[in-house]
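Researcher: I'd like a candidate sequence for this fold, 617 residues long. If you have to choose between options at a position, lean toward the conservative one.
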């Protein structure tokens, strides 16, 4: 440090100002600080002067030579040179270090440059990649949009095609329907015309037949009248002759009597005795018959019964009456379901349960339970009462409430007769009173006669306690009209509603089989005579399928069981009106429509609603 300061002093003091140890022109000149250049205006002017002399400054050389001389003359010349040499070496080392420093800086700068270039390159690559990706994305978007547009166009095209196809098929379908309708209309027209022709032919035939029959009847009548007149004339002559003869005999007799006094007395006495005998015998027989009838016979109020009218009736008729007309031997319980009765399933179960309970009640000798059946007319109340009697093994008797009123004061006796008669049954009796409201209505009713009131009281008296002989079954369409004392005696109340569609379907099938297919005629023989037996076999049923019956069941909403039975009877009658006795679906439908219209008309009339329309053409 001291050496450096000395050197610096030397430089400062040195007017020559040459760079120490600068032997080479290429050696870098020491850096000049701004202070030194600005603080040394003299050197600046010197340098200017040098420039003006062509770049050579002799003064410096002179000053250098002078300094060298001073150094040479100085005793420390050797040290000075040594110092200078070391200074030079130091300077060299500094320069080398500086060079290395600059090289390092240069290397750093290169590295920075390289890094920057690499970074630029990377950025460039990234930008290129981004641009490329954007371009690709854009292209992709474009392709996708193009595809979407294509798809949309394709879809629209397809939709149009489908629409066109649909329109075309609708047009075809419409054309087909129109053709079918036309064909059907033509067929209908043809059938109508044919039916018209048939009807006309039948009408003409019927008229011709009727005319022929009328003519024949007229001829027969005239013939008969002539024969009758002849016969009457003959008879008159015969009778006139007989009368004349008789009167001539009587005249002779009277003449004898008037002339013979004893004969006259005998004749008058004999005639009187004969008259007295006849009168006494007749009255006596009447009294005895009444007594026997009361003791052994069936009360007159009973309309129908499973018990024979007299004990000897069974013997006379060869035991036929031992069998119920329903086909069950008396006393034998039937295990079959309710035969020929179509009821709502729950009602059917209840009825079967009641029949079983009644049968068991009898076998355990417990008191019977009374029942009330109510519901619209023709819903099977009577049938069910009969069926309960049949299934429970009881005797059955039926009376109608309407028969009581005409009996007047005798009604009370007749009611007591019934209950006395019922005791004769060993099996127990099911007494069914139809139209019960006719004489068991409210006692305060103004329409009730004194005799009816007494009859009601008699019935109340006989049914006051629970009975082991009689099951009382009342049936009515107006349960609200019954006297409260009667309803109080009822144990089971059962409603019989109008059949629903399902039941109507079964009823239609039942009566179709019964009336038109000739099955199960036994029950109806009493009603319809032997008509079925003779003719049912001839009926041919064609095309009356389940669907046709179901359609009919749908249409017959509001029909009772009786109405359906009657509907089928009408169908049967219509079939018999045909020469070929064939029942086809068209006739069946016609009859159903006719009966449905008739039913609605009846309902309207019952409601007092307007004039009766024409039921059918
Ligand atoms: N549920 C049914 N199943 C089968 N046939 C029936 C049914 N209901 C009614 N009928 C038919 O109707 C006819 C009359 O039935 P029934 O006398 O039992 O009716 P009801 O209810 O007693 O009528 P009413 O109240 O007028 O006395 C029967 O003979 C039968 O042909």
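Model: Candidate sequence:
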């Amino acid at each position: 440090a001291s050496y450096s300061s000395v050197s610096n002093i030397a430089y400062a003091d040195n007017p020559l100002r040459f760079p120490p140890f600068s032997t080479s022109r290429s050696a870098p000149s020491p850096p000049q600080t701004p202070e030194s250049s600005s603080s040394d205006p003299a050197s600046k002017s010197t340098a200017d002067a040098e420039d003006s002399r062509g770049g050579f400054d002799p003064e410096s050389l002179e000053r250098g030579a002078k300094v060298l001389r001073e150094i040479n003359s100085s005793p420390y010349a050797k040290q000075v040179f040594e110092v200078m040499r070391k200074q030079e070496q130091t300077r060299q080392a500094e320069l080398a270090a500086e060079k290395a420093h600059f090289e390092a800086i240069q290397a750093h700068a290169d590295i920075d440059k390289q890094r920057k270039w690499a970074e630029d390159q990377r950025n460039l690559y990234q930008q290129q990649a981004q641009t490329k990706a954007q371009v690709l994305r854009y292209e992709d978007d474009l392709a996708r949009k193009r595809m979407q547009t294509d798809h949309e166009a394709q879809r629209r095209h397809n939709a149009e095609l489908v629409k066109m196809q649909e329109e075309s098929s609708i047009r075809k379908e419409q054309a087909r329907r129109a053709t079918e309708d036309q064909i059907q209309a033509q067929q209908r027209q043809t059938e109508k015309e044919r039916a018209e022709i048939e009807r006309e032919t039948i009408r003409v035939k019927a008229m011709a037949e009727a005319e022929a029959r009328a003519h024949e009847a007229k001829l027969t009548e005239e013939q008969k009248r002539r024969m009758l007149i002849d016969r009457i004339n003959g008879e008159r002559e015969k009778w006139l002759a007989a009368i004349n003869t008789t009167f001539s005999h009587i005249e002779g007799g009277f003449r004898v009597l008037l002339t013979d006094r004893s004969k006259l007395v005998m004749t008058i006495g004999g005639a009187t005795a004969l008259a007295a005998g006849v009168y006494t015998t007749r009255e006596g027989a009447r009294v005895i018959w009444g007594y026997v009838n009361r003791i052994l016979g069936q009360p007159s109020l009973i309309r129908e019964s499973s018990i024979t009218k007299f004990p000897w009736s069974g013997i006379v008729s060869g035991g036929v009456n031992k069998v119920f007309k329903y086909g069950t031997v008396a006393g034998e319980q039937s295990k079959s379901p309710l035969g020929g009765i179509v009821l709502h399933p729950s009602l059917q179960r209840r009825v079967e349960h009641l029949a079983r309970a009644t049968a068991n009640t009898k076998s355990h000798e417990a008191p019977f339970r009374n029942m009330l059946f109510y519901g619209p007319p023709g819903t099977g109340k009577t049938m069910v009462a009969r069926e309960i009697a049949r299934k429970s093994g009881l005797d059955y008797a039926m009376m109608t409430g309407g028969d009581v009123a005409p009996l007047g004061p005798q009604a009370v006796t007749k009611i007591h007769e019934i209950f006395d008669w019922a005791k004769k049954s060993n099996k127990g009796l099911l007494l069914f009173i139809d139209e019960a409201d006719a004489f068991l209505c409210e006692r305060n009713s103004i329409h009730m006669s004194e005799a009816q009131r007494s009859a009601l009281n008699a019935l109340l008296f006989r049914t006051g306690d629970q009975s082991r002989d009689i099951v009382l079954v009342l049936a009515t369409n107006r349960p609200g009209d019954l006297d409260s004392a009667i309803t109080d005696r009822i144990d089971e109340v059962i409603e019989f509603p109008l059949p629903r569609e399902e039941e109507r379907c079964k009823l239609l099938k039942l009566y179709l089989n019964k009336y038109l297919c000739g099955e199960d005629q036994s029950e109806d023989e009493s009603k319809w005579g032997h008509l079925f037996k003779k003719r049912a076999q001839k009926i041919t049923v064609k095309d009356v399928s389940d669907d046709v019956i179901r359609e009919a069941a749908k249409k017959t909403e509001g029909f009772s069981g009786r109405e359906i039975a009657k509907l089928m009877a009408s169908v049967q009658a219509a079939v018999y009106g045909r020469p070929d006795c064939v029942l086809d679906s068209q006739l069946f439908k016609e009859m159903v429509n006719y009966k449905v219209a008739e039913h609605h008309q009846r309902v309207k009339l019952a409601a007092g609603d307007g004039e009766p329309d024409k039921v059918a053409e």
